[in-house]
Automatic annotation (TrEMBL):
InterPro entries (alphabetical): Znf_SWIM
Every SWIM-type domain range: 87-125
GO molecular function, one term: zinc ion binding
PROSITE patterns the UniProt entry points to: ZF_SWIM
GO cellular component assignments: Shu complex
Species per Swiss-Prot/TrEMBL record: Nothobranchius furzeri (Turquoise killifish)
Pfam families: SWIM
Protein name in the entry: Zinc finger SWIM-type containing 7
Keyword Transcription regulation: no
Entry keyword annotation includes Transferase: no
């Protein structure tokens, strides 16, 4: 019985990212058409991502997400958190330096994303991400955490 449960849990975990990906596609499609997210997708967002969904939507409303791009094509996202602290997130590896990401996602494996990374995905789906160009040197400094652009 124990093996069967473990196999089922593994299967469910492997589907969750696909569900999240489809949810972002659905949000993009409906937002492009109606410039709002319908209630059924908001409920799905809350179901998939839990309490951080509402917090992420608040960050989206506040236009807290900026995409930094360099001439070499590197990208990083900066999110101003609810406390005013700036977090640099990387979608390529699903990483955020916030304590919630470290504890909830990495240590306890209780969520896919923190509110900051979720806000980045939502801003991209809704095409409301602020854009900023930085030099390759600024991006290198940002990536090495030696200086903010």
């Amino acid at each position: 019985m124990r093996r069967r449960r473990k196999a089922t849990e593994t299967t469910m975990q492997s589907f969750l990212p696909a569900v999240a990906e489809q949810l972002f596609k659905d949000i993009k499609k409906t937002y492009d058409e109606a410039v709002q997210i319908p209630d059924d997708l908001l409920v799905a967002l809350k179901f998939v991502f839990g309490s951080c969904a509402l917090q992420a939507l608040d960050l989206v409303d506040q236009r807290s997400v900026t995409c930094l791009t360099s001439p070499s094509g590197r990208k990083a996202f900066q999110v101003v958190g609810g406390s005013g602290r700036l977090y640099t997130c990387f979608l390529s590896c699903h990483y955020c330096p916030c304590p919630a990401f470290a504890y909830t996602v990495l240590c306890r494996n209780q969520g896919l994303l923190c509110k900051h990374i979720l806000a980045v995905y939502l801003c991209q789906a809704m095409a409301v991400t602020q854009q900023e160009s930085v030099s390759d040197q600024q991006m290198t400094a940002l990536l090495s955490r030696t200086e903010a652009p």
